[in-house]
Design goal:
535 residues; alpha/beta; five-stranded antiparallel β-sheet; 32% helix; globular; signal; Lipoprotein
């Protein structure tokens, strides 16, 4: 047995060394890179998005075939010059980008903004500088090939068919253009997706709902916590999230969303605009080593015909905080209705039309690969939605605002708890904001956050539904109203109070504990710290 253990360790060490050795020699294959072929009038150029990702059979066996053939296929692309682009001049104003993508913000003379987003990526920039980047940087760059370089082209018309707002990307080639000004050295001579920037007044843009004000996630999250009448249309967000999972797009951080606002009669509603479809149709697990990595990194869900229900957790994890915030009012029936509606919208014709987008040189190959997978995944949407609901419901949030609210918790049958949140209005009846029944079959922990405002937490009956109930008072002078029955069982309920909170002034018959993270629960600004906001 000892010899077996030593042998196992030796094999593991040997495999580890082999992986590191392969990683170190994994830089881009620049021998396959050829110069662009220009048309006679310089209006178009023929160029491949990533010929450097071409690899031999051995490399593909270990690190995956991915979309290397698509990256290496030359495509004919229009050349843009910023000073003479039709119908307007575009002026670069700001460089940016996420973890992998380089972007350049452009402004037209009429004030409309656009953005150039690089087709080629480089995830090595996310590695810490030093020996780790030296060792793994080349491998990270090579794995850019897991992404479908023209996937955004396909995703946009599919979003249109689904009823989800979207950008409309165009593939362009940016030469060494003087119009780039100070950005010339970092952005010239490359392929980009040129698209409208979803921000500000978009009343002219149907794909953004003709919204008078498109805002980022930080703005939206603050707005819905400042005033109870300001809300995100939960079912519109759910539809967008189910579309994400159908497309295999696991990278949906809060900063990858914009929000179309629609003010009306003293309230504002928001609808989602997903952006940055870099990871749609993600294909990672088709190499020996990448397959092993995918076992340990569940969010790296590869785009295949089947969506295993065990992968829904990983596939949805990057937007988990947003999901719990915005989907908490919806029932299992709501999830099923949206899944059924989406399945009906995403017809075979809609899929075929979407796959007719993109460069002509790659359309047939992309369509042959993606069409049967999209059709198969569409039929699994109801099962995916059911599992998604279960995941979200396991730890549920009810979150108030900085205004005063009444939270009513009451028994709704064995193992069931009804929670109502109402806005307190002086001199008027309370106004219902949300209501939902939580069931021990799906919920393990319910967390109720009052945030700021003088809130009332009303416990109308026994609170012992078979799952934990945690109440966080937040700022303000809050109170608990206990049941009239003095022997009501409140053992499942714990009140977490700030050091200067009100819990010690009430005899509610519930367990009182100090709030372990008052920096996250005090008010709307503290609540923002839960989200990955980079914009």
């Amino acid at each position: 047995m000892r010899g077996f253990r030593l042998s196992t360790v030796s094999i593991g060490c040997g495999l580890g060394c082999a992986v590191l050795a392969l990683a170190r020699c994994s830089g881009p294959n620049m021998a396959n890179v050829s110069p662009p072929q220009w048309a006679a009038d310089s209006s178009t150029v023929r160029v491949a998005a990533g010929p450097q990702y071409t690899r031999g059979a051995v490399w593909r066996f270990f690190w995956g075939r991915h979309y290397r053939d698509i990256w290496a296929t030359p495509v004919t692309v229009p050349v843009v010059r910023l000073a003479t682009i039709i119908p307007d001049t575009l002026t670069p104003t700001r460089a940016g980008g996420s973890y992998q993508t380089r972007s350049l913000r452009l402004c037209a003379t009429n004030g409309h903004e656009f953005v150039l987003r690089s087709v080629d990526k480089d995830a090595s920039a996310a590695l810490p500088a030093g020996w780790i980047r030296w060792l793994l940087g080349g491998l990270m760059k090579d794995q850019t090939s897991v992404g479908q370089p023209y996937g955004a082209y396909v995703a946009a018309p599919l979003a249109e068919a689904a009823g989800v707002y979207h950008t409309n990307p165009s593939l362009v080639y940016l030469p060494n253009d003087p119009g780039l000004r100070r950005f010339r050295s970092g952005y010239a001579n490359a392929l980009y997706l040129l698209e409208e920037r979803p921000d500000g007044n978009q009343q002219y843009a149907a794909n953004f709902g003709h919204s008078p004000a498109v805002v980022n996630s930080r703005h939206m999250l603050l707005a819905i916590r400042k005033q109870a009448g300001t809300q995100v249309e939960a079912r519109a967000y759910l539809r967008a999230r189910l579309l994400d999972m159908w497309l295999g797009d696991w990278s949906r951080r809060p900063d990858q969303w914009r929000w179309a606002s629609f003010p009306a009669a003293g309230r504002t509603s928001y609808r989602p605009i997903p952006r940055d479809r870099d990871q749609a149709f993600f294909l990672f697990d088709d190499g020996l080593i990448t397959r092993i990595v995918s076992w340990f990194v569940p969010k790296y869900h590869s785009f295949h015909a089947t969506i295993p229900l065990r992968t829904v957790d990983g596939l949805s994890t990057t937007a988990r905080a947003l999901d719990r915030t915005l989907l908490g009012s919806l029932s299992a029936a709501d999830f099923q209705q949206e899944a059924d509606s989406l399945r009906q919208r995403l017809t075979d014709g809609a899929i075929a039309a979407a796959l007719a987008s993109g460069p002509p040189e790659t359309r047939a190959t992309i369509a042959a690969h993606l069409a049967p997978l999209l059709r198969a995944r569409r039929e699994q949407l109801p099962a995916v939605a059911a599992r998604y609901y279960e995941i979200i419901s396991q730890e549920s949030w009810v979150v108030g605002t900085d205004k005063p609210e009444r939270f009513i918790l009451s028994e709704a049958g064995a193992g069931r708890l009804r929670v109502q949140m109402l806005a307190l209005r002086p001199g008027q009846p309370d106004s219902l904001i949300t209501e939902r029944v939580y069931d021990r079959q799906t919920t393990r922990h319910l967390e109720v956050y009052g945030l700021a405002g003088n809130d009332i937490f009303e416990l109308r009956s026994t609170i012992n539904p078979g799952f934990l109930v945690s109440v966080y008072d937040g700022a303000g002078h809050d109170q608990v109203l206990r049941p009239a029955a003095t022997r009501a069982d409140l053992s499942a309920c714990t009140w977490y109070s700030r050091p200067d909170g009100d819990a010690t002034r009430h005899q509610a018959g519930i367990t009182i504990e100090p709030d372990p993270h008052p920096e996250l629960t005090t008010d709307s600004h503290a609540w923002l710290k839960r989200y990955n906001l980079r914009d």
